[in-house]
Amino acid sequence: MKLLDIAEVSRQSGIAASALRFYEEKGLILSVGRRGLKRLFEPKVLEQLGLIALGRAAGFTLEEITSMLAPAGKLKISRDRLAAKADELDSDIRYLIAMRNGLRHAARCSAPSHMECPTFRKLIRAAAAGLLAPEGKKPGARRSGRERKS
Amino acid sequence: MKLLDIAEVSRQSGIAASALRFYEEKGLILSVGRRGLKRLFEPKVLEQLGLIALGRAAGFTLEEITSMLAPAGKLKISRDRLAAKADELDSDIRYLIAMRNGLRHAARCSAPSHMECPTFRKLIRAAAAGLLAPEGKKPGARRSGRERKS
DNA sequence: GCTTGACCTCAAGTTCACTTGAAGTTGTAG
DNA sequence: CTACAACTTCAAGTGAACTTGAGGTCAAGC
User: Fold this and answer.
1) Per the domain annotation, does B23 fall within a domain?
2) Nearest residue of chain A to residue B94 (CA atoms)
3) Which residue from A minimizes the CA distance to B56?
4) Which nucleotide is nearest to A35 (CA to C1')?
5) Number of domains in chain A
6) Across the strands, what pairs with A40?
7) What is the mean pLDDT of residues A44-71?
8) What are B55-71's pLDDT values in tens digits?
């Protein structure tokens, strides 16, 4: 089993080396040794990183993800937890669909100004209400799509 | 036309007074005078705040929203811009739906461990790819649902 | 044996949208 | 008149997830 250095892991995963170091510091991934100063990773870290990406995409924080990763690099996610997150996504999706439909309407609405369009005004009220109404959610970064420098 | 003080605006809009001051500082809203030190707002600021909430819900930053508000407190949003944001939401929605379906499956999948479920593994690959593939997006706070202290 | 460049550590900085805290001012109730 | 609650300003802090910078180390190639 050949080990990968951080540059290789970064290249194959598309995650910046600084982020990999950060993940290791946080306990999300593990390096298995050093060559000189340089970290070495097992190839399975790539699968682990995929898992982390999935967690992030689903809206879990890194801390939550950490708690789902068992020491040995395997995962221990309860099915309940997954179902709960799916429900959460469902409500996000419904909200976004309402927004999208509203925006779509406003974009092609014939009212002279948006403020005169009843659908748009309804949207505004929905948004204002949405700020308070739906079950509390933290900012959660969705689909960061970080692009790397070089 | 009776003017509202900041406490009243806060109460009616559900937005913290500190946030209202912050919005004013940023040029998103305007106070029309003072009684003593205290800011006074026109009632239409409430509609303005709804507009801001809508923009935030659609994923615009405060800066972008500022650029859509014409000086007089009316808006100047191009229909193209709305349509573009609707398209963006659409792609977000598709992505979230894929995630939700995957999570839903994993939650009731009969594989002994998630890592042995092919659907889950496919999800992981999708998430890992999603980090690089889809058109770049900034973290954007979605559905903050800030709750107020008191 | 020396240079080079890729890595290392650690602290501090970034972004966004606010919040919090300290210290000051003011209209109003008593 | 005085106390007080409710506002005010301004600076600094928050949290998430990293990035950036300064200064250091090391294996490999010439």
Assistant:
1) yes
2) A93
3) A127
4) D27
5) 2
6) A5, A33
7) 91
8) 998 889 999 999 998 77
B14 and B57 assigned to the same domain: yes
Give the structural domain span for B116.
79-130
Task: Tokens for B131, please give them.
Answer: 């980090």
Q: Which of A47, A56, A28, A87 is nearest to B115 (CA)?
A: A47
Question: What's the CA A20/C1' C1 distance, rounded, in angstroms?
Answer: 35
Q: Which nucleotide is nearest to B52 (CA to C1')?
A: C17
Tell me the angle at which helices B17-25 and B6-13 cross, rounded to the nearest 10 degrees: 110
Q: Residue A34 pLDDT more than 50?
A: yes
B83 and B28 share a domain?
no
Whether chain A has a CB inside 8 Å of the CB on B111: the answer is: no
Co-location of A85 and A54 in the same domain: no
B51: region left, alpha or beta (phi > 0 left; psi from -120 to 50 alpha) = alpha
Report CB contact under 8 Å: B50, A128.
yes
Give the sheet arrangement for strand B33-35, strand by strand: B4-5, B38-41, B33-35
**Whether residue A60 has pLDDT greater than 50:** yes
Q: Is B7 exposed, middle or buried (0-12, 13-18, 19+ CB in 10 A)?
A: exposed
